[in-house]
Amino acid sequence: xxxxxxxxxxxxxxxxxxxxxxxxxxxxxxxxxxxxxxxxxxxxxxxxxxxxxxxxxxxxxxxxxxxxxxxxxxxxxxxxxxxxxxxxxxxxxxxxxxxxxxxxxxxxxxxxxxxxxxxxxxxxxxxxxxxxxxxxxxxxxxxxxxxxxxxxxxxxxxxxxxxxxxxxxxxxxxxxxxxxxxxxxxxxxxxxxxxxxxxxxxxxxxxxxxxxxxxxxxxxxxxxxxxxxxxxxxxxxxxxxxxxxxxxxxxxxxxxxxxxxxxxxxxxxxxxxxxxxxxxxxxxxxxxxxxxxxxxxxxxxxxxxxxxxxxxxxxxxxxxxxxxxxxxxxxxxxxxxxxxxxxxxxxxxxxxxxxxxxxxxxxxxxxxxxxxxxxxxxxxxxxxxxxxxxxxxxxxxxxxxxxxxxxxxxxxxxxxxxxxxxxxxxxxxxxxxxxxxxxxxxxxxxxxxxxxxxxxxxxxxxxxxxxxxxxxxxxxxxxxxxxxxxxxxxxxxxxxxxxxxxxxxxxxxxxxxxxxxxxxxxxxxxxxxxxxxxxxxxxxxxxxxxxxxxxxxxxxxxxxxxxxxxxxxxxxxxxxxxxxxxxxxxxxxxxxxxxxxxxxxxxxxxxxxxxxxxxxxxxxxxxxxxxxxxxxxxxxxxxxxxxxx
Length: 645
Known about the structure:
Shape: globular
Number of helices: 19
Largest sheet: 6 strands, antiparallel
Distance between the termini: 85 Å
Structural class: alpha+beta
């Protein structure tokens, strides 16, 4: 159990070993504020700044929602005000802000405050608390522009992400199709929102106007992000920190690369993702590869696990040093939060590990009295995380795959989902299983991933090429079109056939028990080096599933004479339009998903087949009834007897 108490405004946690861990400091980290009317793009700007500079995005709305969700003391006070037709009290809002920005990650990295203060009362409370900011950015746009943006604002019901159908549409059609309009964005409430904002900001502007910077939000979001980023860089606060700019990292004050800084220790703890203890890097590991005849010991450079050939080996993991940093991934479910807190407490207090979680988990953990480190972008996770722990189902492992574009740390998964084909561990034995893994000498399956790259046809160059890493399968289908997909298929640039079907599945051995199996494909052991090529409802009696070697490069093009376009999806997500002439290139990824085995890769696989699918499960055939001795002897022919015909 975790007990917490407050002492002189500083929160401590006491754990199983009575180890006191301070999670906040007296000093204040560098803070920035983004203000603006509804529809001005505050939240998008804050997220981009957090990703670029590696600072913490303090979203007060998300923090309040977490308190409401778990009925904390703050949540109950807020709920009373909301039920009475009011809003969250200013004092409560500022209390949540103060509790958040004194935590260690905000002090070490800095933070950007999203939409607070909203009025003069909140500004006064912040001033009385001695909270100051380096820059305050005030977004502004014309009223008709804001009304139009709010009219096209949509929310993703699955993750709460905000999009705008005109200015910030989702990258995937799959997400677009499930977007919903919020109740507050109907025409009447839009007018009320803007009117209320105008009344409050007029008084607030008199207080903060002289020390704030006006930003024109009536332009593309990318231009707004660029202008504000340059202003933040000009402050010099983040000199020496790696800054992500236009998909690249730069330092701004030195010609050294990020890799150079990491090698001499000057960039440790300042990469913007995870706060790492100075001097601590990933724990080095050794793999012992066995092919059934002999075993070979291999030291892994930078602890980045890669394929060096066909994926036919059983691999043993050996830690050369004890792991330090654990990424704890949790299924989005209120019921699992108590389980997550239990796991995080054990990992931090008993095993003395640095636990990193996603942003939504951090907010909900804070509402439950626990601070856990988070990250603003996943680009450098592979450099800092030693072990991934998943609490959920198979979908969570697919999500973990999307977080690591290159090398993936060893991954252990506990079954808290529905099917659990890839999750052999039981959470009831969490402590014992974690001790087993942290001691090393455990077996792993190097589960092959596929790299899927979209290539655009000559007439479609306005659309960008995109690349995805998938653990299960890449699917090309006809979508909602009434016509068959007309797909030209190539292997190593040699034409194979033109598929006329509902679609094609290109699957890994891991994905062979998913969509491919449902479409009639074979179940393939995860260590078999192969790419499965399974048609979806082919309009042909002679087209059957094909298995290619893992070294093959497959390409599927939408035939130029096709009646309609096609759609591509990657592990069931990121749905992309393939116009006529577009193509998709699929080949084995260099970087597998190393999943830790409960027994070994064969035992786990057949165990999952039995547990999840009841593989070959039927009553045994009864033996024939025994007959009397005389009848049995009479029916047995003599060895040299001749039978008349």
